[in-house]
Request: fold
Amino acid sequence: MDLSSFQLSTLVFALFFGVCLFILSRHIRVPAIVLLLIGGVILGPDLLGVIHPKSLDEGLRLIISISVAIILFEGGLTLHPEGLKQTSKVIWRLLTLGVLITWFGTAGLIYLFLDLSVEISLLAGSLIIVTGPTVIAPLLKRIQIKEKIYHILHWEGVLIDPIGVFIAILCFEWLSTEGPFLTHIWQFSYRLLIGIVFGYLGGKAIVLLLQKKIIPEEQSNIFVVASALLLFGVSDYILHESGILTVVVAGLVIGWANPPRLKHIQQFKSELTELAIALVFVLLAANLELKNFLEMGWKVFIVLGGVLFVIRPVSIMLCSYRTSLSFNEKLFLSWIAPRGVIAGSMASLFALELRAIGYPESVFLENFTFSIIASTIIFQGGTASVVGKLLKVEAPEKKRWLIIGAHSFSRKIAEFIASATESSCVLLDTNADATREAQQEGYLAFQGNALSSEVLPAEIIVSIGHVLALTDNRDLNQLICEKWSEFVDKNNLFRWSSQSLKVEQQIAGVGIPIWSHLTKPSQVSYDFENKEIQFHQHDNGEGESKMDNSVMLMAEKQGNISFDAVVSSSEIAQLLLLKQAALHVTDLLLQQHILFIQSKSYQEALQSVLQAVHHLYPDQFQEQSTLWLLERERDFPTILAHGVAAPHLHCPDLMEPLCFIAQIPNGVDLHTYDGKQVRLFFVLLSPESEPELHLRLLAEIAKIASNPVMVEQILAAQTPDELMQCINDKQS
Reply:
């Protein structure tokens, strides 16, 4: 096989297997860099021989340089200024005092125990200053620690990279080139100047082009990446290795300016960064020679132990002195300092160049750095979750709900969540009136656009663990879920959608679609406010009968909210049900509500009906209500037409409206009303809280009474079933 074939197969296999190992790491929940390191060694020349990094020659250096630029630019994009404000004192100390402690402390251990020169010791110490954002970022997502610690580790991981790289370059130049020390200091300062100036101006130019929409949205992702690489290349052309700081500063400027489509750019850059890490780290790991690790000797373990258990804790304790960090938080920061791709990349680059000019210690640089990487990732990364639990520095569970929409439907949902789970809710709406009404009812509500997280205070954002989008626009609901996926787990994002579940599965948008059987949320609110529908909350243990003709919206199971449509009756759960309001007499009629009686007078007939009511509902219908209705009907009987009477009353203890029908075949005379005879009683009893419903039901009874044919058919019924069937047929 010729050289070009080796180069092509090496790149293709490294890229493919690197991506596969990245995917596998997500499934088995281990740091990706662990699998990349192991996979690269296995695929390398020492074992399977599938990948041959040395065949790339100078191309390996170019791949590493470009990948480092992509990784650091993405790191700058993801940094938030709010995080720096919260932990600025500790971060600045780590970037100054902490850097010196790590650098000189590691160099001292190497010089004392491994008997190497001062120059090599300082260079090796400078290579492990960086803590690796490529390892820190996924690690922090996996263990969910307190926000303050999160910001310290994240900011340190990104900002310390260019500092560590610059110091490493200074040491490398001191070792590899001749000249006075002040010349090297000048070169270092010149790099700082170029990186800051080019990064700032380049970042501002990119932001301006995006804000002015000169760059089409479809090309904004690739334009930003190409521009970042251009800045890197131009800076590096002016002065070698100055492009590192340039891309970090440019990323910071763009991220903080928050131009249009920033989230899409960040997502694209994140995927590109993972691709770069997958390729580079497999190549670097495959480039290692296992025999060189064995030749390092046992004393290297003393140095490794000193870096992990002495230098990092000393650095953290000094840098966090007289800060608000607790002792447990300091211990956790002392344990977490994994090194990653940047350290390995720089070590490999320097080893290649030192090997070319005849430095035998070049092998040590690479092997020592990768030993630190493997040790910190395996021991620190692997135990981070356990250590976090032991030290109690894990972030509290995010239980708060953000509901997009402040209409009455949203408020009813918030009421159920608060009562069933004791989780607080935040309502967010662009409608000022709805927001004000929610605030007046005691809800924490804000007016603003849900597509912008800045509308909510930072302390509220970090407490949100669930999002429910209830706008009338299903596409907007999906965009809202996509926006909030940056802060909330995707399994906790819910949205109303009018599309069926089958269609939603084909679209595969962000957010779990729910309640597709409901009309628009605003229409649900309107129906609720106009008594067209009702919400009921009850214990599922009360039985399934109460769920008749109801739609389950939500259920509480063991303190969590579920939107499952099926809830077992054996489960103890609070349910929120939606039920069409009982606007029709037929909805209120039960067989036991239909009576066939013989009476001599109007009062006697009415009393018979009320006795049946009291017998069936003793807790809701009191004796006092019987007396009120009898007294009123004695003086002012509610006579409609065609022998129909409709005695009715608002009852203080009644929970739901009741309707009874009494058929009196022989009729009862009303002597005071010109000899009119009553043959049919509709007795309507309603809660005091629902006067509008009471009037609508009376109007429906009056409509029945106005139809002589229907009245005769009802009177002709011989059984409760026949009577109910007659009314249902006529009403339908």
User: Anything to note?
Assistant: Residues 501 and 654 are 40 Å apart (CA to CA). The chain has a mean pLDDT of 82.
